[in-house]
Amino acid sequence: MGTFGSGSSSESNENTYLDAKEWSVDPTNLPFPTHGDELPSATLPAPIRDGKQVSIPSDFETDLLMTFAYTTCSTMCPRLTAIMAQAQDYALKKGYGEEVSFIETTFDPARDDAKAFRQWADKHRVEMDAGNWYFLRPKSEVRAKEVVQDSYGVNFTKTNSENMDTYMFAHTGLILLANKKGYVERAYKLQSAQGSGPPRVTRQDVSDDLKTLREQES
């Protein structure tokens, strides 16, 4: 229950390894980066790593899989994290776990702290001991808007709730695959569980593309 694809001009070919896949719309009109686009730069703290500031993409010499989620989500975010965690497991089993980094950025810094991230990782079988998974937390809601929405094009809107501790978000479901040079190879967009459209994005889609990318880069 989602779509995946990419699109760009031929000028991006020198920066990418995978062939572009067609979107049902002009990819230049999409708010998030797609095939051949350079990853937006951002520096955010990583609470589980003692609050260390992590800069994307300059701190990484690996391929990157990125998503944007919040840990009290019960709909799209578990699916996004599960796909990422399964791709991590695949990479580790295939022997190139050190060549791929996984980044999950929250847009709910008020509730997502180191404890919440650890519980989320345990729940979704993220291999934190592998050392290649990064939970990033903007310091404020304003900073989350700047990075997640303005830079990466992942829209999110807080839903109204009488109990402010139980608010939720309506948001874009997105996973990005970028190569070592910091250019997007794939953008996978998930639809909501209630949505209709092309077949859903699967772990196999992501793992197959990651495998091909690793082969092309080797």
Automatic annotation (TrEMBL):
Residues 191-218 are annotated as: Disordered. Residues 202-218 have a biased composition (Basic and acidic residues). Coiled coil: none annotated. Keywords: Copper, Disulfide bond, Metal-binding, Plasmid. Cu cation binds at C73, C77, H171. The keyword Metal-binding applies. CDD domains: SCO (cd02968). It comes from the Archaea. Disulfide bonds join C73-C77. One of its GO terms (molecular function) is metal ion binding. The keyword Disulfide bond applies. Belongs to the SCO1/2 family. PANTHER family: ELECTRON TRANSPORT PROTIN SCO1/SENC FAMILY MEMBER, LINALOOL DEHYDRATASE_ISOMERASE DOMAIN-CONTAINING PROTEIN. This is SCO family protein. It comes from Natrinema thermotolerans.
